[in-house]
Amino acid sequence: MHKKLNEKKNGSMMQLKGIFLFVLLLLFTIIFVGFSISYGAAEIKLTTVWEALANFNPTITSHQIIQEIRLPRALGAVMVGAFLAVSGAIMQGLTRNPLASPSIMGVTDGAAFALVITLSVLPSVTIAGMTFSSFVGAGLGAALVFTIGAFSKGGLTPVKLALAGVAIGAMLSAVSSAIALQTQVAKNMSFWYAGGLTSLNWTSIKILFLAGGIGLVVAMYISKSITILSLGDEVSKGLGQNTALVKILGVLVVMLLTGAAVSVAGPVGFVGLVVPHIVRFLIGSDYRLIIPISGIFGGLLLVLADLASRMVNAPYETPVGAITALLGVPFFLFLVRGERRGI
């Protein structure tokens, strides 16, 4: 009886901690979105940002810059970061693999590969078409990685999946580069390859909002099931869990969120790897908390990375993917070192 009461008390405390952390991260996200909108080649005061949002005047140049360029970029950064972080959390929960993330497991490179082919064949393709092709490519990349990992000696292990993901990602990236060079779209794709937010507009935001609305709702719907599944297939089945359905829904969510993010921002790496680990360290293994907190934390991280990309070599921009890689690569190597005995 005392044990159950203690477990219930600990669960309630963890939920309160999760809610507090979510609200705190949301507050920081709003603050830094304001800074992101105000900072740039044309310096704009925060008071002007508020005026443009509250009472837009199309005759004022600064208001036009905010509404047409800065605001969609900032909102897009939040959504792209959130989508990648949630995708990484779901992948790590489904595979029980601490090294799983869209950028490492072939999902991002698969989406980029399909997008390059689409742009080469149909240069005038719409954003909706680009997003759909990214969904297909994300599924292709994940399928290749898991197929190769499944045929390896000794079965799937976290490091083997990571190695297969890196290998497939490198192959898809090389093929994508070759196709881009042959079809003369390499110049237009060069900044996109590095991961960038400069091309975001209100059409992109609508695509992200639609994909995120569906993907995040489904992610929260299966969050409790992912918590159970992360304990192992046998435990999950013993508790009456339909593991196959949960995995299918989880993969579809990853394809949807990653495909949408890559189609508008390019292959921004390591957000989906780093953020879920930090969140689990802070609030435990309950995916009903991990998914929403990872989402808001990923959004905040990418907004900060976007700000840093404009400050490092001002007035020029450093690709935001390079900034996230500086954070992600050491973290990845640390995780690989911790998992090396599982090879």
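The record above closes out task 2.4. Task 2.5 opens with a second protein, given below.
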Amino acid sequence: MTVSRPANPLAMAAFAFAILMASACKKPATSSSAAGTGTPALATARAGFATQLIKQESEDEPAPAPPKGVFDRITYNSPAGKLAAYLSPDPADGKKHPLVIWLVGGFSNSISEIAWEEGMPVKNDQSASAYRKAGLAMMYPSLRGGNDNPGVKEGLYGEVDDVLAAAAHAATLPWVDPARIYLGGHSTGGTLALLTAAAAPESRFRAVIAFGPIDEVAGYGQKNLPFDVTDAKEGRLRAPVEFLDGISCAAVAMEGADGNSDSLAVMQKRNRNPKLNFIIVAGQDHFSVLAPTNALLAAKILTDKGPTCTLRVTAAEIQAACTKAR
């Protein structure tokens, strides 16, 4: 097994974005569904398929201990085994609380101090701490092959099952409202959020928030992926653009116009799902859109209390939030 040590999460996310931009024009074509005919849910399409990996990679650093009272370091059961996660502590107030599951960017499948790091610049705040600071519960799951977890990285294939397992764990917690579990992520985490939403049972997630996702995972390039990116079947089952119709909850995908907006535009053009909204924010990039928008969405989640999800955000609202944050 080839073992690689986890890099700085901020650097890894920036690297992932650079690789994406460099290879955007070289992605193999993996789309096979006819326009307008709809696509099956990702879970259906994956049934009976076993991914074939051309390299076996994992990390070997345990998840750092979080500050007391900010997060608990727990494990949750996934098909790969017991995986580490950071989880907000039980408020012990006898109430059911909404919870945000956040998927970080990069290729390490690991969690780190980024979950609680303070003083991050507003133009590159990948912590998603706005939700926690607004009073929302949070969970940061690591994935197979990340930290010192069992399993190997699968390039956003088996990782879908890990995120679904993390959500199932969260739904059993007595202080979490299982009807108000939100899934969010940035960069590769945003891509994984869309794939997970397309494979999720109806009502598993209240809403999905994806920053800077890519339309086809193969576009991240062979150097960063453990499967053969020229294999059409492997690529298609990791391509959010092929399974947008399978997302059954409210979902929004966002990106700065100076970021990976071309990939977002591809999905927006293919999308026929009225529950899924795409927003390209003028004057922002892959990172600067994060902090202001997360703060805006955190406030909206606090008021999303009825039987039906009311979480909505517009390009104008995000633009105003970004302008104010300068």
